[in-house]
Amino acid sequence: MPLTLPNLDDRRYADLVEEARALIPTHAPEWTNHNPSDPGITLIELFAWLTEMQIYRLNRVTDDNTRTFLRLLNGNDWQPLGTTSAALADDIRTTVLALRRRERAVSSEDFEALALEADAGVARVRCLPRRNVLMDFETEQPGHISLIVVPWQEGTLTEIIDAVKTYLEPRRLLTTFLHLVGPQYVPVDIQATVAPLADVKETDLKPQVIAALSDFLDPLHGGEDGDGWPFGRNVFVSELYQLLDQLSGVDYVTGVTVSSDDPARLIYNERLELIGLTVKPHELVSARTLTITAPPV
User: Fold this and answer.
1) When comparing pLDDT for 14 and 1, which is higher?
2) Which of 4, 54, 124, 198 is deepest in the core (most CB within 10 A)?
3) 120 and 189 together in one domain
4) What is the DSSP code (8-state) at residue 193?
């Protein structure tokens, strides 16, 4: 379907005359005779007629002019597909689509989209503007961009980072310092006390619970949407309760706790009850230890 050219100016003769007449009191207040017999009104009508002809020509760009514009956009080596209207419509469509393609990494979205294009082994990317995670994440570094690259397979990380860096190098701004690193994981230890239904064996339930927790925190397929645990997303005890309580073989959940190597990450409420674990914006979580027990009888 060919692209419809816009109407660049839809004013007509009467519109132009009225527009010019409305400007008279502002620019020539001493001019009070606005009748058609006045020579000034005659000039206004003449110029409105000439302007309407120019507008008519403006809205009717010739095919040759269109191809000239396309050559300016595509370069002097560009050649049209043909001389027919259908070929010209295809040339316009191809040029417009090419203009919409990302070719420069400027915004965070640009860096993330281009990094995903760089290599099929890239599963996820997180862009951190004004940060150099190789040196200091907490301090802003103007001109620095850090990319956290998560591969589909952990063993290919080095090759993937090299490929992404090579792809982004000619596309970044000259004043941008680019830093690429692999995923930064926060190990999370979870202990849950779960009661199975009467017809479910405890030995059968434990693998199901462990698999549910591992999948929920998985960096590639976890999270509520199933597209990976979000970067910087805190882990809350309440959502783990909800997850386990919805499992088919679970009768009820009596307790869930989370812990990590850094006690400062733990989040408590005003009653000093553990409610979660803090994750920084450049980090993901990794379920390190999952301990599942049954409540005492």
Assistant:
1) 14
2) 124
3) no
4) E
